[in-house]
Amino acid sequence: MTTGNIIELRGVEKRYGTFLAASGINLDLKEGEFFSLLGPSGCGKTTVLRMIAGFQEPTKGTVLIDGQDMEGVPANNRPTNMVFQSYAIFPHLNVGNNVAYGLRGKAPKAEIDQRVAEALDMVELGGLQDRGASELSGGQRQRVALARALIMRPKVLLLDEPLSALDKKLREQMQFEMRNLQQSLGITFVMVTHDQYEAMTMSDRIGVMFNGRLKQVDTPTTLYARPCDQQVASFIGEMNILPAQLLGETGDMLSIDAAAFGRIEIERNPNVVTSAKDMNIGIRPEQLEIAAQRPEDYPSTVQGTVSNVAFYGENIHYHIQVAGTEKPISVSVPNYFHTVDFQRGDAVWLGLQGASVIDLGTDKK
Amino acid sequence: MRRPSTLTAYAFLYLVFLYLPVLFLPLFSFNSGTIVAFPIKGWTLDWYRKLGEQDTLIQALWNSLGVGTVVAILSTAMGLFAARAFVRYRFRGQRAAEGLVMLPLVIPGIIVASSMLVLFLFLGLKPSLLTVVLGHTFLALPFSVSILKSAFDDFDASLEEASYDLGVGVFETFRRVTLPVVSPGIVASLLVTFTVSFDEFVLAFFLSGNQPTLPVYIWSQIRFPAKLPNVLALGSILLLTSVLLLVLAEYFRRRSSASEVQ
User: Could you tell me if A349 lies within 8 Å of chain B, comparing CB atoms?
Assistant: First the structure.
């Protein structure tokens, strides 16, 4: 019997003494998907990964890999392989022997040599078998770690912050390469990361964790547009969070009073509960129009003053102080032909459309 | 910035006081006279030549080499497991255990020696090279534990996990990853513990019975003035060997730290 799920976590909990590292984790991972566990450091994401790998046993609950209960199965007998955060390249072995490590004694030498060559080609290190472990750059170490894990033909590849040790440029390049590799191999990748952009650019689905709990599991676009609460909303990308009043609802549309932005119609967010009058809304900085004159075609406009400007190259961030809100509103504008260029203290108009407002529901008590 | 002054003078005198007596040893071992005093009568290598003719000395040398080798292997093997546990795991009573292992460094040798003698006699073990090996292993353990602990400190724990993860079991991982990566530390520990045992006198004096080790033999010869230059020659060789072994050990110890730094 197959459910199409390569990994299933059922009510998994991990306790260290009195500290609850992870609890109530239920998760189904589909065959061939790129899944990321995203969260701030200490949220328990690495603990979950290590329970799948077999380095830690859950205190409660079940880990199933390919339908098999993994209780009592040590790491060396699980159909998973891992790329470690430190890469864990064996310092006393050269590249070829590092990659061949898991196959030694389990396959004829000729076959091992051939598979090592293939694995190294796959990570674009072809012909570097004899290179010593200490002569490798950070990016090369990461590739060797990948090849060493993939040569075992795992059902699931586990990646623990695989890119965090690389510099920004190399990291972005590797994001694409790893995504391509995963798609061409069709293996399930489970990656742990604290970097939301990394998670969003690479993953089919993302599980967001806070304080040992899995808050939301969704595609990157859904997470971005329909977060399940304020915490997730502000962890994935930047978000202006404002209080609002629920005035009425018709079907999937809510009619709200969004403080300074006035009355506006927004879509209901199925991931939150909006029941009481007091609610919260979220507005992404890039979803706001900023202009010197009152913008037309926007159902809601408000006037404000530029309190801060930050130049990011590809876009510009403004902080706009608006009457009736405590915190300034963040607005980000693409640096498109340098058409917008406001200074601190300028009076500006903000324009907002209902489709850009995210319903964040009633505060949970 | 030069301040020769008192501090430099103090440091100089300190070193002279520390090492000059040691340097007299080789100096007088080349003296052709039998009285250890200036002026030196003449230069000779006779004392060194005569070393080879003394059967009891050769026997004591073999005793020492044998004891040192066994002690080095025993204490390094025990130290290897202890050091790995101290660095890798957090367990109840860890600090107490680490302290106890280091204790032989500060307990007076004569106390250890006499209590061990009592213990071994109580157990029915006659003083022999075996009891010396047991005593020296106890004494050498803190050295091997501290050397190997620093080797494991530089050892990334995920290397062992990576090996398990690649389908390799616990014992094979120890052989294929742990041992090779800490091997410079192991060599350093073997050399140092051998030297500790080779140079040790008090325990060996109490526990060796009628199978003297080299230091015990030297002590027995020192009472005869005519034998003194001979002992000086022997002592000089021991000195040189010890220094060489320790320099070699330090080289390996540093290599074990350097190999892990990327």
Answer: no
